[in-house]
Amino acid sequence: MESYDIVVIGAGPAGSSAAMATAKAGLKVLMVEKRAEIGSPKRCGEGLSKSALGRMGLELEESWVRRTILGASTYAPNGKKITVNYKGPEGWVIERKVFDKWLAKKAVEAGARVIAKTDAVSVIKKDGKVSGVTLESNGKRWDVQAKVLIAADGVESKIAREAGIDTTLRLVDVASGVQFEMAGVDIDPDRIELYFGNEIAPAGYAWIFPKGKNQANVGIGVRKPWAKKTAYEYLMDFVESRPGLKKGSIVEINGGGVPVGALMKNMVADNFMVVGDAAHQVNPIHGGGIGESFVAGRIAAQVAVQAIRKGDCSKKSLSEYNKIWWKERGEKLQKLVRLREVTESLKDEELNWLAEYLQGEDLIELVRSSGFKKLAFLFMKKPRLMKLARKLL
Amino acid sequence: MIRTDSRKCLRCSGCVGVCPRSALTLTEHGIVCDSRCNNCKICINFCPVGAIDLEIEGVRRHLPTKV
Ligand SMILES: Cc1cc2nc3c(=O)[nH]c(=O)nc-3n(C[C@H](O)[C@H](O)[C@H](O)COP(=O)(O)OP(=O)(O)OC[C@H]3O[C@@H](n4cnc5c(N)ncnc54)[C@H](O)[C@@H]3O)c2cc1C
Ligand code: SF4
Ligand code: SF4
User: Is residue A87 packed enough to be buried (19+ CB in 10 Å), middle (13-18) or exposed (0-12)?
Assistant: First the structure.
């Protein structure tokens, strides 16, 4: 039987990051991806912030950057706009198709073997412990052995469930998203735009991320039980109601589930780890997961390398990953889950009222979770919001 | 059991992630549902494009093909 130190399932940012870091450390690594083309079709608005890129430790590459972001405009339900202009580039809109493949190639350069159009069909267990995986490619099925199996299979997350970790998402913890990549639209080419409101996007938001002067990813994420229609219907209404978008053309339609909560205390089993969307490692406020999944992949890789060197890949040994991830990212994201729970119960008039008080800078601070206090003090002015204020402190 | 309208389905695999019975799989041919499905409708509630429906035996459906 073919045997590897590490087998990674799924070649998104989480998988490529884990494969790259373990291969760099000299381990024998295989990464499989079931899609025919890594990164395509995208399930992503393609927004990448400067801080996320910094955490990833990657250099910007012209090949996958489409637009530099110099500001953001946020719209309250009544249309009130809060604009913030950054001092310099604060983010980019990228081309995931190019970016994901670029990352996978980096993993290959580091020494990993990558195979596209290869499906992990089931987890192999020996004495109740994960020992490998059955793969299927080009009509052929075969088994491979792994000292550590890393599931980076995205929102599907079937591998972890087979390995005995329940990653099933409850509807309140996953946004239902759909997006049009549009051309020939009138947009602000230098700023991202975010639209809030229970009519526009219940328990979520609509976005316009510019990809060119007249090109943009226009998408929406909504959640049940608040949403009364499908995400697609909300997006159609959004586009129809804006002449600058309505006149444009749709060159791609994509969508997906965005985990926005349900962070997991345990992401390991004997000889097994789960990373990225599969482990719900996404910013629960804006739904960004490129940076989070990449960082998680790297942390998991560091722990796996240590475990293999020690010759102990037990659950206990691998649980170091739980510890490090929670300290580096989890605690902060958990705070944002609280903010998410508070914002989802706000009525439109309350969102409008908030927009009167908040400056653009406040919104940025909020997403960085340093602005909670200010929001809580604001909430205390309204009797109905007092309870929510306490949740924030 | 559920079935999906492959003309609408985006192959986004979100339904797979929310299915509490792990009954769904995204394949080359779209979403396939196995016998573990207990008709809880969670996937139907999730689907961003409304591509999923319950398959009721003996009732002719508007969906043309079975995946
Ligand atoms: C509509 C939408 C908009 C978004 N917008 C943004 C954004 O603007 N910015 C941002 O940072 N994030 C955004 N995200 C989130 C971001 O796309 C994800 O967080 C990120 O892709 C997660 O990376 P990953 O590697 O964990 O999973 P993925 O990128 O989903 O990769 C998982 C891979 O595993 C493969 N796979 C699954 N099962 C198997 C199997 N059995 N065998 C082999 N391969 C398998 C899949 O085909 C897939 O390629 C958005 C998500 C959605 C749905
Ligand atoms: S959630 Fe809907 S669009 Fe996405 S894969 Fe499932 S059936 Fe298709
Ligand atoms: S109806 Fe329920 S059990 Fe059946 S496939 Fe959908 S989510 Fe799974």
Answer: exposed
Is residue A53 assigned to a domain?
A: no
DSSP track, A147-164: EEEEE--GGG-HHHHHHT
A237 contacts in chain B (CB < 8 Å): none
Inter-chain touch A174–B42, beta carbons under 8 Å:
no
List the single residue in A with minimal CA-CA distance to B18: A169
Work out which ligand 2 atom sits closest to the CA atom of B50. Answer: 2
Cβ <8 Å between B18 and A41: no
The pLDDT tens digits for A168-199 are 999 999 999 999 999 999 999 999 999 999 99
The answer to whether A67 and A210 have CB atoms below 8 angstroms apart is: yes
Same domain, A14 and A158: yes
**Would the CB of B41 count as within 6 Å of ligand 2?**
no
Nearest CA in chain A to B17: A156
Q: What is the per-residue pLDDT across B16-42, written as a single tens digit (0 to 9) for each?
A: 999 999 999 999 889 999 999 999 999
Question: Using the beta-carbon criterion (under 8 Å), do B11 and A155 form an inter-chain contact?
Answer: no
**CATH number for the domain that contains residue B52:** 3.30.70.20
Q: Phi then psi for A131, rounded to 5 degrees?
A: -130, -10
> How far off is chain B from A200, nearest CA to CA, in Å?
15
Out of A259, A284, A309, pick the residue that ends a domain: A259
Tens-digit pLDDT profile for residues A104-117? 999 999 999 999 99
Do A126 and A175 share a domain, yes or no? no
Please write the tens of the pLDDT for every residue from A220-266.
999 999 999 999 999 999 999 999 999 999 999 999 999 999 999 99
Residues A278 and A296 in one domain: yes
Those residues with Cβ within 8 angstroms of residue A183's Cβ, 6 or more apart along the chain or in another chain: A212, A214, A215, A248, A249, A251
